Task: structure prediction
Amino acid sequence: MTVATASVLPTVSVNPSVNHRSSGTLTTHRRRLYPVRVANDSKTTQVSPDLTIEKSQGDKIVDGMEFGELCNEFECISSPAVEATARQLVRDILELREGNRALGTYAVSVKYKDPVRSFTGRDKYKRQLWSTGALDKPNVSVQDMVMLSTSLLNIKWTLKGTPKNPLASVGGPVILKVDSRFTLNQISGQVIEHEESWDLSSSSTIAQAFFWASRRLFSTTESAKDFSDTFKNFSSRFSTKKENVDYYPDPSGDPTKFFQAEDDFQRDAVQLALFLALLYFLVQFLRTTL
Result:
């Protein structure tokens, strides 16, 4: 269990007594101390009289994490982007974000896998979540988040909600314990692999049956969408290729098409004319000498 502790606000202190020597006499000036908070937004530094700062639950959890030694005196083995990604991932989980997720935390060709579904591509993270469609007022709590290595993030969280189906709701809430593992690019911090494992041991038999039935139906629907998107992309590429062939044809495919080919008949005629001219001058020469 990761315990987040609030950080102590920095204070700017001034030595209460400053000695000045002037004309051989010693005078003492006392200055009043004021606690301040320095907020850094990467562009400006502001001083605010507000002594408290509200942090989200995700930030508190991340603050209690150990990210390991990112750099030593010889080389850097990871980047601060890994920490930024961890903060964003836990926010997305806690808020059950769908559609408005920060897709920049995922690589374009990220690979996802759970017990019933797998896919490739971050665009699929824009779709509706199973939890918001199948459960009534689902809520999430994060139990633990730890860096297993400089590129492997593990988040353990619990999803709880009552099935929207009236028949399934008699079995009580679905309590799903999720173990999410994210493999991160150590330079960009983006997720390149996302794998989940599930534990329903805290749910009733009816709730478990509802979960597996609805989740498999959801996965089948999403797979159909994947196939439809793939077919559309293929058709779009084929149409583009066909247009290129129609408007920019290559009639010969000959790499020498930009060079002018010689005319064999013309070449032979020139050679024959030169031969006859040479023969004529030879005959005239012999006639004048003999």
